[in-house]
Amino acid sequence: MKKILMTLAAVGLFFSCSKENPEPQLQPSTQGAAGIAAVDPNTPGAIRLSLDADVAPFEVAQESYSKEEQEGQAARGTRIDVKGPDVNSAITYRITPGADGMVPVLVFVYDNAGSVQVNGAKGTVTKDGKGLHVKLGALVDPKVASSNSVLKRIVDGKAQNPRLSILVGQDDDNQNFTNKGPQLITYEAGKTKTLPDNFILMKATGIPLKYDASTKELSVPEGTSISLTMQGYLIGARFNNTFPATMCRYGWERSAKDPQILDANGEAGYASPRYAEQVKRPPIDIVFRIENLSATYKAKIAFEGSANKFNIGEDLLNAGYTDPNIMNKRQLVPGLAPSNLPGTGGGYTYTGSDIEHGFRPREHFLDANNIGEFSIPVRPLGTLTAKSFLEGEQFVVVYCPNPGDMGSIGFKSPKKLFYDDSPFSQTWEGKAVFNPLSNRKNSYRKRPDIRPENRFHFVIFPIRPTPLPMSDGSWLTINTDREKSFKAYKAALDRLGYNHKQTHK
């Protein structure tokens, strides 16, 4: 297969950038007939098909992705362009051809009685990536009626409501779609980054067909327009860090001693944080997390002709959270791994204490290890809005091919340095205020009443403190953690120049 690129790009955007689960037992496709191979349209005896499709733009969703968000704040074959900074007008996509100017296309021909899958078809990219021309042949073999019965019915004039559906972006086997996992994006004017091949699936379904027996030509009725749209939806996870921009300067010399208040010269000896130098709070390091959504596993492609729709990963959807063993049946996409509690040896169970649960029932997160930790700086209130990207802003893009899926996206800060209930998070506001970030309620679960198709859902996660008058010592939960906390904070303080007798910018 020729390499076909997907790009999240253009004027104003730069994308700078476990335990192993067994192969799932995928259920049979609902297509109802064995597949046949596409042939050259000039093959003697072949039924010829020719059609043109236009790429339709997808939309930035206006409805909220989750109940929490609603309450808390108002390929191959494709290229995605985010022109920024205006979010609502930024998103477009186009077909990107291989070196031969073509892309692989999965074709289903069907009527009210059954369907046949046509493998090996290709389409020619037209209109600078905004159009697709499909031309192929298919042979009717009377000796193998079970494999092409719908074609035989069409030829005999007995087919009721013959239709066509096509898919672009599937795996080479024409049976599965392997999600490419969450992708980290950094907005920087004028620069681009190429996303993995086959990042999204594109489809056109329920295309009516007519047959000309004299020319053996299948075509669409005159005046019929065909639009290629995204199968499922995209999520853009953004992060708004509104912690106090400054904090009291503390140093830490030895783990056996407590942190000490420091002045602008890095000198200690003060009893009250009112005398501490006010220093800049560093960015917070976070990890993106996801659970149960169709973006997390290799998905079987099935086609349901009676509904004119593709079912992607439907057999392993677990939308009702009814299967406690679902993770043993799925093949996780590359870059995702079960989220484990620190210091437990990295084991993974479904009922044990070593798996990190979300705050909702049956919520088991996967960490986006392909991204790793990334940093979100403090921004003044009102700086980051739903309407525009900020220079240098980092966000995560996730593709969910099944619109009926259910699950959550979220984040955590594994270390929470300068964002915990330690003295290092402290501010002086006429009194000492501690500023911890809770790892609770830092996720959004998709609303069960929405089935997004051809939509880009942007969500904004608030990263904000819960002001406290004093620390409860959570940052030093047990004595054995003290040395670990000391080493982490000392390294961070030395890097920033905030420790004893150090200078900083």
In brief, what are we looking at here?
With 505 residues, this protein is mainly beta. It is 7% helix and 32% strand.
User: Ends: how far apart?
Assistant: 52 Å
Strand portion: 25-35%
Query: What would you call the shape?
Result: elongated
- Spatial extent as radius of gyration: 27 Å
Main beta sheet: 7 strands, mixed, barrel
* Assembly state of the chains shown: single chain
The helix content, as a percent range, equals under 10%
Class from helix and strand fractions: mainly beta
Q: Order of strands across the widest beta sheet?
A: 3-9-8-7-10-14-17
Q: What's the overall average pLDDT, rounded? A: 82
Poorly predicted regions: 1-33, 72-81, 343-354
Q: Tell me the domain tally.
A: 2
Question: Please, how many helices?
Answer: 4
Counted beta strands:
34
Task: Please provide a written account of the structure.
The chain folds into 2 domains: 6-17 and 28-236, no CATH class; 242-306 and 317-496, no CATH class. Mean pLDDT is 82; it is low at 1-33, 72-81 and 343-354. The longest helix has 15 residues, at 482-496. It has a 7-stranded mixed barrel. 40% of the residues are buried. It is mainly beta and 505 residues long. It has helices at residues 67-72, 145-155, 326-329, 482-496; strands at residues 6-9, 36-37, 46-55, 59-60, 79-82, 91-94, 102-111, 114-126, 131-139, 163-168, 176-177, 183-186, 193-195, 202-208, 210-212, 217-219, 227-230, 233-241, 246-248, 250-251, 260-261, 278-280, 284-291, 299-304, 309-312, 336-338, 366-368, 374-376, 394-400, 408-412, 427-428, 432-433, 443-445, 455-463. It is built from 4 helices and 34 strands. A hairpin with a 3-residue loop joins β31 and β32.
